[in-house]
Amino acid sequence: MHAFLSGFSLGISLILAIGAQNAFVLKQGIKKEHVFVICFVCALSDAILIFAGVSGFGYLVEQFPSLQMFAKYGGFAFLFVYGLKSFYSAWSMSHELKPEGITPPTLFKTILLTLAFTWLNPHVYLDTVILLGSVSTKFGEGAPLFGLGAMTSSFVFFFSLGYGARLLAPLFKKPLAWKILDVLIGIVMLSLAWMLLAF
Asked: Are 62 and 130 in contact (CB under 8 A)?
């Protein structure tokens, strides 16, 4: 039980910070678009990476740094473009909670975006594969329980964020609130993009 709770608490602490993925989940939660699928894809991706880390995949990543380089520059390009898109949206569009005439993105496109926010972020590999993977070794035979606790924290966090975001829905009936959110998301995306280059 100690291993499970340790994995849960460490997992929560690693994903609690506001980042590109969390900002995307928050925005889609407010819009109530494909919330379950987005939360499930994020949590399942984390679970796969945590399993890989606890199973010793972290060693493979350390032996092939080119994997991190690919994620670094791919993640920069994605975050940079998405950040510019957020600024453009804030400047040129007048959003409402359910804008008339604007078709929500398809489920397939939403899944691709969610996967990009997750798998093109090199920090997720450091957190899940390397950090959680290395910490799990301290629990010996309890390592699988540690990993299970970390996986559980991802499911709890993302579903809480996605469905809790709808509590902000009344605020986002005003177009100005959407503009402010788009600007903040743009700042987060571009900041993270530049941080990746320094990583």
From this structure: yes
The tokens describing 98, both together, are 């359910």
Entry field: residues in the chain: 199
**pLDDT tens-digit map of 35-81:** 999 999 999 999 999 998 888 765 666 676 676 677 677 767 877 88
66 Cβ neighbours under 8 A, 6+ residues apart: none
- Domain of residue 177: give its range: 2-198
- How many structural domains compose the chain? 1
188 token code pair: 């987060």
Q: Is the pTM of this model over 0.85?
A: no
Rg (CA), the chain: 18
How far apart are the C-alpha atoms of 45 and 51, rounded to whole Å? Answer: 10
DSSP string for residues in 126-139: IIIIIIHHHHHGGG
Residues 47 and 124: beta-carbon distance below 8 Å: no
